[in-house]
Amino acid sequence: MYRKGINAYKKGNLKQEVALADPHKLTLMLMQGALDKIAYAKGCMERKEFEGKAEHLSKANAILVNLRDTIDLDAGGEVGDNLFALYDYMIGRLTDAHIQNNLQILEEVINLMLPIKNAWAQIPESAKQEAYQAQREKQQAAV
Questions:
Q1: What is the pLDDT of residue 128?
Q2: pLDDT, tens only, 6-48
Q3: pLDDT in tens, 57-68
Q4: What are the annotated GO cellular component locations (predicted)?
């Protein structure tokens, strides 16, 4: 009973964070969510809780697909292409880990994701504002 109340509070708090977050923060939250789901799947795999493993890997996969599919390949250039390919690789590796029940593959994906998340977190505020402004101008020009 106590746990249900905590989970409800967390969900409410997360919804509020999402509602107030800028695109940079949302991306950071997605990255952390993917890492969390992979870690949960890892624990389930260790405990042979296959239903939980499948659920968490499915959610991690969905997050990675979203991150991959929201890359602006026109603006991103070679970096965008490489990031797209890396997310695509991680998605495939999660499938491999699920099929093979392989903890090392999950570690591999975590080790690929962490530097991306850490680099994203290091983006200076001025660069974020510049990107938001360019995106607004692009949207207004399309109208």
A1: 73
A2: 555 555 565 666 555 688 889 999 999 999 999 999 999 999 9
A3: 999 999 999 999
A4: cytosol
Phi-psi region of 48 (alpha: psi -120 to 50; beta: other; left: phi over 0): left
Instruction: Check which CATH number belongs to the domain holding 108 and give it.
Output: 1.20.120.340
Q: Which of 80, 11, 65 is nearest to 34 (CA)?
A: 65
Can you read off the two tokens belonging to residue 88? 């695509």
Vertex 53: Cα angle to 28 and 2 (nearest 5)? 75
For residue 16, the enclosing domain spans: 2-123
